[in-house]
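quick one: 4'-phosphopantetheine bound model?
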Amino acid sequence: MAIAVYPGSFDPVTLGHMDIIQRTSQMLDHVIIGVLQNKAKTPLFSVEERVSMLKSVTSHLENVEVRSFEGLLVDFVHSCKANLVVRGLRAITDFEYELQIAQTNRVMAPDIDTIFLTTSLKYSYLSSSIVKEIAAFHGDIDEFLHPEVARRLREKMNR
Ligand code: PNS
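yep, here:
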């Protein structure tokens, strides 16, 4: 059985992430979205909020599950009894960082492979950081986010 972990910060989940989740769920038996709780960073949304948004926007995908994790990704993958990590590649600028993570993880855990999906061209420019910046200046974010996530981001920015 092919069980994959799709890890990330998802602060917040964008349509680019959702494109990767959707395609991965069609290819593999089970997909666990791993939401990183990184105490060294201060995300806009708490880990509980990020998990809740991801659950809400993936509720139609039966083989997708959402969990949070702390610490090393490889330990989380082992705890999920998964053997694959999925990451999206938007552009060549992503490649060096992603290669570094994948190779480090492979040294630490040779039983785990990383597979890369190229992001659909439509979303190749998209990032959570850019969307947050647009929202901070009250720009239109509806093109980039699921309506539920857009609503929660507006709500957060208006506080
Ligand atoms: O969405 P992001 O912020 O690009 O995701 C980065 C992520 C979560 C994949 C990466 O930071 C990660 O795996 N962190 C867990 C800590 C870890 O395992 N570090 C060693 C390999 S970099």
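Strands lie at 3-8, 30-36, 64-69, 84-89, 113-118.
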